[in-house]
Amino acid sequence: MKRETREKLGLLLGLIGVICFSLTLPTTRIAVEYLGTTFVGLGRTVVAAILVAMVLIVRKEKLPSPRQFKSLFLVAVGAVLGFPLLTSWSMKFLPVSHGAVEVALLPLATAGFAMVRAREIPSLKFWISSVIGSVAVIIYAFHLGFGSLQFPDLALLLAVIILGLSYAEGGKLSKEIGSWQVIAWAILIGAPFFVIPVGLSLTTEMLHAPIHAWASFIYLAVVSQFLAYVAWYSGMAMGGIARVSQIQYLQPFLMILFSAVFLNESITFFTLTIAVLVVFSVILGKNAPVSKKGSILEKN
Which segments cross the bilayer (predicted)? Predict the structure, then answer.
């Protein structure tokens, strides 16, 4: 395959991955209304684990080492447990367009933790961009919360921080075992612990849930939890991490668009303005220079 063709295919796969991720909050909002937070937040991992196990067996993937399993456990805590569960709970109370603005901070959180893991010192430019993005999100949350920061906002921001840490850890580990393999093994690690809570969350009312609720849940389990990662990581591998990762800036706007299309949420000028400001701060922060001299962690 020619280099130009490979790069174009990488960009296409990256775009597909971002579109799939952008549908995560809208489908979560639909599913939790009928199926509950625990079932949606943890149950999708149990279902995804079946698909993941088949793929790993067919491909005859090598088992990670004990040291790698420790890193995978951290990835599982964020990407498999923390983020799905916290976002599922938050989406019971927040509009998707609201959540999209806060989740837009994810690339910045990931970049920050990546710097720490790489033992680098963030530049002043990075900290300025972080403050701009964070303040914008807090102002937005206060505005929609009528002068106070609501618990769902705190949960969503915590979800972003946890996922940012797991992404940074996964990015470092992907150099050793492969990109999509990181989330695949993390799913298998987390799934066994979720079987009992998911089983206890089952109710007879779920049998009467509408088809769109179950369709949303299946989407979360099969696409958001696994296939979207395959497309995203494959796209970056083929088209280049720096180039393909820029597509991620479209995600908050796609989330807002999908919230209007599928949930009939209104798109306000204030929401779009804050989203633009947050994305600007993320772009500024991700491109900020860093020092290679070490980090605070080296002193401990």
Answer: 34-57, 69-87, 93-114, 126-143, 149-168, 180-199, 211-232, 253-284
Res 295: pLDDT: 41
Sign of the CA dihedral with 94 first, then 22, 203, and 183 last: negative
The model's confidence at residue 254, banded by pLDDT at 50, 70 and 90, is: very high
Distances in whole angstroms, Cα of residue 213 to Cα of each of 19, 218, 223: 20, 9, 15
Highest mean pLDDT pick, 37-46, 140-149, 177-186: 37-46
The helix/strand/coil state of 290 is strand
pTM: 0.84
Q: What are the strands, taking DSSP E only, across the chain? A: 121-122, 290-291
Domain parsing of the chain, residue ranges: 3-299
Torsion sign over Cα 285, 286, 291, 294: positive
Phi, psi of 123 (to 5 degrees): -80, 170
Q: CA dist 268 to 98, 140, 148, 199, 272, Å?
A: 11, 12, 20, 40, 7
pLDDT digits (tens, 9 = 90+) for 114-125: 777 766 677 788
Beta strands at 290-291 and 121-122: parallel, antiparallel or unpaired: antiparallel
